């Protein structure tokens, strides 16, 4: 059993939350009970994740995608009412860490994806250090790189590029970071990996010869929140459950 505030303070400090400018509040988003014994992690604070946390009698739902995004309607109606009502009814603290959890050099989504894939991190750069530059331990064809992602993330990626292209130098940013592609191209990489693709990146990939892999927003961002949950567990001795759902996006 740990005090909620101690966990929040530790997370804020570890993730250096004050260094980021974000689109949603980082930290406690919906207040529940003041003591925490059981935490459920999830990529998103979806109703399915909240229901699972309630079933597990969790005191905290720890997520990467919380609520209250800058562009979101502020009224508490419909799906948002349903989510918040269920959290309040079960006194579940809903805690979200967004960009600080993408960028953290050890627990972050980018770092955790690299760890799973065996990619070597050379530097973090770009907007709020969200773009990672690195390389494969040995040169592989684009087909092999894509197949390794499909295997590890259990999701078939969208690949734009010459399948036989030799890939060594990489850039990546998990989630919806297709707009960092130009910067990745400027870094002189062979391939850029992110979670989503928009129409423009297809042409950019073809015209520059830099391969683009869209490996899934959810799929590329599964591991940061799990790593944060594990770190909280070992620091505070709480129980930890990981919720995952099949999200094709
Ligand atoms: Zn995301």
Please outline what is shown here:
Keywords: Metal-binding. The protein is of the alpha/beta class and 249 residues long.
What would you note in describing this structure?
InterPro entries: DUF34/NIF3 (IPR002678), DUF34/NIF3_sf (IPR036069). This protein is an alpha/beta fold. It folds into 2 domains: 118 residues, Udp-n-acetylmuramoylalanyl-d-glutamate--2,6- Diaminopimelate Ligase, Chain: A, domain 1 (3-Layer(aba) Sandwich), CATH 3.40.1390; 118 residues, NIF3 (NGG1p interacting factor 3)-like (Udp-n-acetylmuramoylalanyl-d-glutamate--2,6- Diaminopimelate Ligase, Chain: A, domain 1), CATH 3.40.1390. Helix content is 37%, strand content 26%. It is elongated and about 55 Å long. The relative contact order is 0.17. Bound molecules: zinc ion. The site of zinc ion has 5 residues, from loops. Zinc ion binds next to loops.
Indicate the topology.
Elements: E1 2-3, H1 4-14, E2 27-30, E3 35-36, E4 38-44, H2 47-55, E5 60-65, H3 78-89, E6 93-96, H4 99-103, H5 109-117, E7 120-125, E8 131-141, H6 142-153, E9 158-160, E10 166-172, H7 181-186, E11 191-194, H8 199-208, E12 211-214, H9 217-220, H10 223-236, E13 239-242
Parallel strand pairs: 4-5, 4-13, 5-6, 10-11, 11-12
Antiparallel strand pairs: 1-3, 2-6, 7-8, 8-10, 9-12
The structure holds zinc ion.
How many discrete domains?
Answer: 2
Q: Give the overall form.
A: elongated
CATH topology of the largest domain: Udp-n-acetylmuramoylalanyl-d-glutamate--2,6- Diaminopimelate Ligase, Chain: A, domain 1
Series of secondary-structure elements, N-terminal to C-terminal: EHEEEHEHEHHEEHEEHEHEHHE
């Amino acid at each position: 059993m740990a005090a909620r505030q101690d966990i929040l303070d530790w997370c804020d400090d570890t993730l250096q939350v004050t260094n980021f400018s974000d689109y949603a509040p980082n930290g406690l988003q919906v207040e529940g009970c003041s003591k925490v014994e059981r935490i459920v992690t999830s990529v998103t604070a979806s109703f399915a994740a909240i229901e699972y946390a309630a079933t597990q009698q969790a005191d905290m739902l720890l997520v990467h995608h919380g609520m209250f995004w800058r562009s979101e309607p502020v009224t508490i109606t419909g799906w948002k009412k349903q989510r918040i009502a269920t959290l309040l009814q079960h006194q579940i603290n809903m805690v979200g860490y967004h960009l600080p959890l993408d960028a953290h050099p050890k627990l972050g989504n980018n770092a955790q994806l690299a760890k799973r894939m065996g990619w070597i991190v050379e530097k973090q750069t770009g907007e709020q250090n969200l773009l990672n530059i690195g390389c494969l331990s040995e040169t592989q064809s684009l087909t092999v790189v894509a197949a390794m992602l499909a295997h590890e993330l259990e999701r078939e990626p969208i690949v734009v590029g010459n399948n036989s292209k030799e890939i060594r130098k990489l850039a990546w940013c998990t989630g919806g970071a297709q707009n960092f592609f130009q910067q990745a191209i400027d870094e002189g990489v062979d391939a850029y990996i992110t979670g989503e693709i928009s129409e423009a990146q297809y042409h950019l990939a073809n015209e520059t010869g830099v391969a683009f892999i869209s490996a899934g927003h959810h799929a590329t961002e599964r591991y940061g929140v799990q790593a944060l949950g594990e770190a909280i567990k070992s620091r505070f001795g709480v129980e930890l459950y990981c919720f995952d759902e099949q999200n094709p996006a």
